[in-house]
Amino acid sequence: MAVRGSLSRRGALAATLAGVVVLSAYGPPAHAQNPSLQDLLDLATRQTVEFVDKFSNVVAEEIYVQEMTRPKKKRTLRSDLALVRYPGAAQWLLFRDVYEVDGKSVRDEAQQQRIQRLFLEPPRDALRRAAEIAQVGTRHNLLDVGTINHPLLAIALLQPTYRTHFRFNLAGLEKDLGPRVRTVRFQEFQRPTIMKANANADLPVQGLFWIDEATGRVVKTELDFGLGRITPEVVTLFKFDEELGLNVPAEMRDWYPDGNGELRGVATYGKFRRFEVRTDEAVRP
Q1: Is 142 helix (H, G, I), strand (E, B) or coil?
Q2: Which domains does the chain have, with CATH numbers?
Q3: 13-23 tens-digit pLDDT
């Protein structure tokens, strides 16, 4: 996963991180921690790699309701959320394509062409093209939060590439989420950080994973941006999908303080369907 962008302050905090999430498949890291914690993290990492493999080339419908307190506003966004893998490529691109705002279509010809190029042209410029699509979608948010409002951003940090950036600690069982769901706290300590703020400053993240001890599947994530007492927060709930055979995002709740008020969002996910990427012809459902 590669995330680039900036974070600006407006009152308490207004996030403007912009970027593209890239997921890649590698084996779990070999460095040791507390054995029970290490085993759980390695199992979760294997499940994350499997998730990326199975969820690639799946598109979901996202219905995302945002509400601001000051000034009081409400907005409903409908988008396609996709994790795209190119044939023969080792990386996946995660992006949101907003097609409807408050019941009105916002998908124009230029946007359609960007999406077609993303799928049909060679993948050498895929990151740039996916970033264009993601950046266009951010203009519809009620507050400039960039692209950090993503349901899979936290789970991507379990990939081996990023695990070494974090300290992990076991916490208690969360039986409301399952009989063997264990809470794991994580906090980024390595510099430079994975994400960046204004002027390329380090932006450490922290949060929680809720992991099923029996399967290693992540059933819930919480990601907090920055280490202060009042920071943007994104929480994602996952559910098991029988057809896909893995946990998929079911709901995302995010919160952004903005000086005089705040922005809260609730997104739900459904209509999961697979598509085929064929760089020589077309995108086939």
Answers
A1: coil
A2: 6-272 (2.50.20)
A3: 323 333 344 55
